[in-house]
Amino acid sequence: QLQLVESGGGSVQPGGSLRLSCAASGFTLDYYAIGWLRQAPGKEREGVLCITSSDGSTYYADSVKGRFTISRDNAENTVYLQMNSLKPEDTGNYLCAGAKEYNSGSSFPEDFYRYLEVWGEGTLVTVSS
Q1: Tell me: the pLDDT tens digits for 51-101?
Q2: Is the dihedral of CA 103, 119, 62, 114 positive or negative?
Q3: Is 127 helix (H, G, I), strand (E, B) or coil?
Q4: How far apart are CA 64 and CA 72, in angstroms?
Q5: DSSP-derived secondary structure for 85-110
Q6: Residues 127/88, Cβ–Cβ less than 8 Å
């Protein structure tokens, strides 16, 4: 059974940092593009960023460029999301998701959504003073 489990969420003040983890079980992350999506109360799901499997290309939503970084540790079968300079508008449930057919040069997040195969339940991030 393919499964992704997120961890690392919590409450932080504006300007703070958090590091989220996404651990895979039942499959190898090496062959999947992995992305982070977020869902804020009353808002539509937003594709935050992703990293491809083929060449490690990364794609970011404009709202997080320069603040968020995605990385993958294939040996640990885990993907990380480093979030710095957090803002209240970053509050939401962060889910990691896998898309095996998503490759470099594809549009993000549209093509990433199209190729989604597996996703987790999410971890809640709250940015508030």
Answers
A1: 999 888 999 999 999 999 999 898 999 999 999 999 999 999 999 999 999
A2: positive
A3: strand
A4: 18
A5: S--GGG-EEEEEEEETT--TTS-TTH
A6: yes
pLDDT in tens, 9-45: 999 999 999 999 999 998 898 899 999 999 998 899 9
The two tokens of residue 74 are 């294939």
| 50 three-class SS | strand
Contacts (Cβ under 8 Å, ≥6 apart) of 40:
46, 89, 91, 92, 93
Q: What angle do CA 123, 92, 95 make, to 5 degrees?
A: 45
Dist CA 111 CA 124 (whole Å): 25
Composition of the chain by helix, strand, coil, percent to 5: 10, 45, 45
